[in-house]
Prior knowledge:
seven-stranded mixed β-sheet; five-stranded mixed β-sheet
Amino acid sequence: MSYVDEIYAQVAKKNEHEPEFLQAVKEVLESLKPVIEQNEETYRKAGLLERMVEPERIISFRVPWVDDAGNVQVNRGYRVQFNSAIGPYKGGLRLHPSVNQSILKFLGFEQVFKNSLTGLPIGGGKGGSDFDPKGKSDREVMAFCQSFMTELYRHIGADCDVPAGDIGVGGREIGYLYGQYKRITGLYEGVLTGKGLTYGGSLARKEATGYGLIYILDEMLKNAGKELAGKTVVISGSGNVAIYACEKAQEHGAKVIALSDSNGYIVDPEGIQLDLVKEIKEVKRGRIKEYADAVASASYHEGKGIWSVPCDIALPCATQNELNLEDAQCLKKNGCFAVAEGANMPSTLDATNYFVSEGILYMPAKAANAGGVATSALEMSQNSERQSWTFAEVDAKLKDIMVNIYHKTADAAKRCGHEGNFVVGANVAGFEKVADAMLAQGIC
Ligand code: NDP
């Protein structure tokens, strides 16, 4: 049995109740086979893969808080500190009822390679809770965040672990978390990213994941002799990543015709009016359906099904496994030629393999959505030097990083004999730096 197959079998046995984690490990290990086989003896001797698939630490804790009716509620909080070989743990906090250890381990594992790809000195981690911020008052969200941080603060720090936002964690939640960290520790330090601009946040962080997605998409299209201008785009989700991907795609002259949330999707053949979406989602915290109520050219469709809307380019920006093989086949049948992932692992393994085998221009999440964490690292740099860079400076650095990630990914794919397969490229390019650092640091 090859080293890769052996390790996967061990991981599958040890983590049999963690399907998302197993899915992520399988995808990464499969695509690393050519590189691992070349160095098998060294890697085996150092137990490299065994260590890479095991988080350095998982912290799980009780989060008690009191709701507006005076009832005590208890959620479960987590921080998965996956790998610190190349820098302090870095990765978001997710607040969603679906959160469990498997999902956070898959996200933390992916984050290790993504962070490496950015070229910046950041390790990988992820955290969150099964708390659902939807429908909660601001006071309830604050009470939860304060309680969550009252436990988490002892495990994080500007030079050790720097969380950020993810699903359900935006500016409001980061503010409450930061306030509580400062109150407990007395430290005014860059311990969280995605902070507000008045207390150490970076310009362009809010936009970064969505903008970065479009920068790398644009580079991928250019290198394939195509362009974004004039193309029809479908984007799933209507949260932070989806909104700013839509904004930048429109700036590039693309026509975005569909967005969604967990209830359903809207189609506007005239092109999405983004100001209205921002008002509904960022200000009123409403549902995407309200867009169709307000715009005559738009229609609302309950449930999944956004991938049946014909488009040239699809950008899944909602959540994991939101696009399956059937969806992928439907996209191809309708003429879609490019897919770039704003969300983490939005395509099932079948769908991913289909995109690759059908020659769709396909940029996987760990390369495509790395702009968020890269700009978080830029926020850390600004915090350390007590400086604030302009929007243009941060945006230019983000663009540079995304263009670089495209080329690193494309070059690694070519080097391994898989030209155009950006899944292999991203995994290999991300893996190499982490592997070298782990080997250099000995068995730890
Ligand atoms: P938000 O919470 O801002 O938005 C999430 C969007 O996805 C919402 O429209 C939400 O709908 C929808 N959604 C969430 N869960 C589901 C589900 N189970 N089924 C269908 N739709 C769902 O999160 P972000 O935009 O920040 O994150 C989106 C994705 O991007 C995630 O995979 C995240 O890990 C990834 N990502 C985010 C980064 C960031 O900087 N924010 C960085 C890198 C990756 P509803 O409101 O109905 O729940």
